[in-house]
Amino acid sequence: MTARLDVREVLCPTDFSLVSERALRHAIALAQRFRSRLTIVHAIASPPLPPDEPLYLSEPVLSLRDLRAAAEHEMRRFLEPATEAAVPVTTVIREGQPWREILETARAEPADLVVMGTHGRGGFERLLLGSVAEKLLHRLPCPVLTVCHEEGRTWNAPGLVTRVLCAVDFSDAAPATIAYALALADKIGAAATLLHVVETLPDSRHLPYVAMPDIKLYRQQIESWAAERLHELVPPAERAAEPQERIAAGRAYEEILRAAAEESADLIVIGAGEHGALGRMLLGSTAHHVVRAATCPVLTVRPTPVRRAAETGAMAAVS
After folding, report:
1. Residues 6+ apart with CB under 8 A from 280
2. DSSP H or E segment with residue 99
3. Angle (CA) 184 178 170, round 5°
4. Residues 6 or more apart from 217 whose CB is under 8 A from it?
5. Rounded to two decimals, what is the model's pTM?
6. DSSP 8-state class, residue 298
7. In 3-state terms, what secondary structure has residue 273?
8. Pick from 136, 223, 244, 226: nearest CA to 181
9. Residues forming a β-bridge with 164
10. What are the chain's domains?
11. Are 2 and 241 within 8 A, CB to CB?
């Protein structure tokens, strides 16, 4: 039997942009599905941003006091969809470095899932296209769902999220990634595909002066081993869900995006481990490629699920 997810607290950071509104739609739908409490957080950069990097506010502002007043006004407007959906919602407005304030809010809840938009301007453009993304994705103590700027689907209506693509490396993060992806697919009634990308297979076309008559056989052996390893990572209890298993060879981000397109995936799930190809994704350019180019949400999963403070007695520090 597929494991159950316990998502009690959903955190949705916002800069009040259109892409944040799209992320909020996903956060509301997931909060409804899991009967979770939703927290919306806005971080006012302190000191305030320069004039060429405006926030998405209705009126121009100059001082930090003005920024807070404007943020409170925008927050009342922003949370209306959650109120209309009858989702329990709390709002938080903080001042400081945005990534630090979001991280501290996620720890304080503690959040079981963070849902945020990508490709916004202002705060969130820097958040997801620069070093702040690496800080958050590496430090947030829970899964993170990023929603792209072109994303138009919603999880509210049945059948609109029908395929989950889970990209799996063979690091320590793989079992948790697979378990989370299959549990989420089961919760929303979606089919699941598990993908492993072999990045280092040689190609005889690139070795014209090297005699390697068995290169084709070698590639087949490596792919066969990878297929067996991938199958072994699926616990017997999870196999009842009959996830499709798929092996590809090439650059990780290219094959992930290719498979997502071929599978018509509605969600890509990747592990946030520190080792292996997909672990490096979150600390280098591959994650940026996937987040920028994916036409569906991308969910990153930490190797160790977050433990609630009430159950552990204290929150574990995240380095």
Report:
1. 286
2. helix 98-108
3. 160
4. none
5. 0.80
6. E
7. coil
8. 244
9. 192, 267
10. 9-154 (3.40.50.620), 163-301 (3.40.50.620)
11. yes
Of 91, 44, 49, give the one whose Cα is nearest residue 70: 44
Helices and strands, counts by H and E, the chain: 12, 10
Q: What is the pLDDT of residues 256-275, one digit of tens each?
A: 999 999 999 999 998 865 54
The answer to whether the beta carbons of residues 5 and 31 sit under 8 Å apart is no
Which residue type does 132 have? V
Structure tokens at 210: 């090297």
Distance separating alpha carbons of residues 146 and 216, to the nearest angstrom = 39
Residue (of 303, 1, 7, 277) closest to 175 by Cα position: 303
> Do residues 223 and 198 lie in contact, with contact meaning Cβ atoms separated by under 8 Å?
yes
Express each pLDDT in 185-220 by its tens digit.
988 889 999 999 998 655 545 445 455 556 778 778
């609630």: which residue's tokens? Answer: 308
Separation between Cα atoms, residue 207 and residue 189, nearest integer Å: 46
Tokens representing 9 are 């607290």
**Per-residue DSSP letters for 185-254?**
HHHHT-EEEEEEEE-----GGG-TTS--TTHHHHHHHHHHHHHHHHHHHS-GGGGGG--EEEEEES-HHH
